[in-house]
Amino acid sequence: MAAIEAHQLTRHFGKLVAVENLDLEVAQGEVMGFLGPNGAGKTTTIRMLSGMIAPTSGYARVAGIRTDDPVEKLHEVIGLLTESPGFYNRLSASRNLEYFAGFYSQNDMPSRIESYLKIMGLWERRNDPVGTFSKGMKQRLALARALLPGPQVLFLDEPTSGLDPEAAEEVRGLIKKLSGEGRTIFLSTHNLTEAEQLCHRIAIFRNHLLALNTPERLRRQLFQRRVSIRLDKFNEAISEALKKLAAVKFFEHQENQLSLSVDNLEKDLPGIIQTIVFAGGGVLEVKEEEHSLEEIYLILIREEDKA
Fold this sequence. Notes:
Layout: E1 4-13, E2 16-26, E3 31-35, H1 42-49, E4 57-62, E5 65-66, H2 72-75, E6 78-81, H3 93-101, H4 109-119, H5 135-147, E7 153-157, H6 165-180, E8 184-188, H7 192-198, E9 201-205, E10 209-213, H8 215-222, E11 225-231, H9 236-243, E12 248-254, E13 257-262, H10 265-278, E14 283-289, H11 293-306
Parallel strand pairs: 3-8, 3-9, 6-7, 7-8
Antiparallel strand pairs: 1-2, 1-4, 4-5, 9-10, 11-13, 11-14, 12-13
């Protein structure tokens, strides 16, 4: 059974369609990146999947529980980190977690609170009012709060938004650790580098699903694979030899730098290199050209704009 299932999940706000016919499955232990521009319906999707709001139509299951059923059972098995987590600023970090722990039925909450405050590096500040915390510290405290029920599934909405680079790296490290423990993580972020680092698959979303796959497979769907070859020299014989190779779909060069489009890089590259050498070129460096997740994202969003 998938950890998260959405079936034709739809949400209207009056005439505005925030989410339309979302079909999605997230496997147990998977980190799913959920990417899209502002106003794309990402937060609305998370609110439906976490049982905070009901869908207009369609339905979802999280950890085997229908999200439109009474939510108490669902909230025992999920954790939620919102983009702007709220705390009682006059209360200490410990007291805040004790208050929120009261919503759950587990008996070992005092030991969990201590454990998560230590994991988040907040144990020494546990008695300080949360109002004195930096945004990074509050974000770590919010993650500790999300982990209190020992969730099978974590929903993280912009977990590093507004954090300085050091604090953001700390939060990413915690997400990697949680993924390594086998938790399912649904991660909404605008940080595409972060998504590529953390996520097994990427869903690109703009009120409806535009693409869903691993970053590598998305690259192969949208781009022909290209390889860059640096030579000691380039001559006309190399150009003529490459034109005769069916495996080379396109090539261009600037001085001694070749760029080639190839369908099956692993199969065809050895023959291409051999052809270049026989034509008098000395090969100094070979590397595949990488397309960033940002390129993939922008192509899909711009195609949607045109449509």
